[in-house]
Amino acid sequence: MALGYLSGTWLGALTVCRLAGVRDPRLAGSCNPGFSNVLRLYGTRLALATLVVDAAKGMPVLWLAMAMGMPPWAQGLVGLGVLLGHSYPAWHRFRGGKAVASAFGVMLVLTPWVALVCATLWSLLAWRVRTAAIATLASAALAPLASIWLAPDYVGVVIAFTLLVLARHVLNIRRLGRGNEPGL
């Protein structure tokens, strides 16, 4: 879990934006170092690079956990470490992202079909309603249901991931209720 946390603390948005020579995404827009804010601020190319880094950063430690024969709940703890590291990185004064791309990467390793179903729903909703928060909340809500069918050994793990992602979106839920959530 500690290795998961350490790998999770690498915030892809910061690396991508530094390499591109643009401003830190935590200083503009939603002030969130994640895919959606980078997309709004700097466009598709940097947002996709952020998504790749944030999704991939926890994969090696998860593969290690699987290779060691850890049971699903222990693999889930490693994955939860990645998400907590992304959300609350010690090196960045515990100001991290909302763990959506990281959760996608973790689930891509642990529950690939659930991850792909949720990513498909996220993409369709983001395209149709043009609001990342709605797409995220809907796909997060679908994840436990999809895991019942597609990855029953990981249902508890997926529920824990979903609760963390939903907790990280409390402000978005409030803004959606007020009708002032920014679009993509």
Can you put this structure into words, describing what you see?
Pathway: Lipid metabolism; phospholipid metabolism. GO terms for molecular function: acyl-phosphate glycerol-3-phosphate acyltransferase activity. It is found in: Cell membrane. This protein is mostly helical. It has one domain (2-178). It contains 11 helices and no strands. The chain has helices at 2-8, 12-20, 35-42, 44-56, 59-67, 72-87, 100-110, 112-129, 132-150, 155-168, 170-178. Helix 8 (112-129) runs antiparallel to helix 9 (132-150). The longest helix has 19 residues, at 132-150. The protein is globular. The chain starts with a helix and ends in a 6-residue tail after the last helix. The relative contact order is 0.14.
- Helical fraction equals over 70%
Distance between the termini: 33 Å
Strand content: under 5%
The biggest beta sheet, please? none
Mean pLDDT reading: 94
Number of distinct beta strands = 0
Q: What value does the Rg take, in angstroms?
A: 15 Å
GO molecular function: acyl-phosphate glycerol-3-phosphate acyltransferase activity
Subunit structure: Probably interacts with PlsX.
Pfam family, one: G3P_acyltransf
Catalytic activity: an acyl phosphate + sn-glycerol 3-phosphate = a 1-acyl-sn-glycero-3-phosphate + phosphate
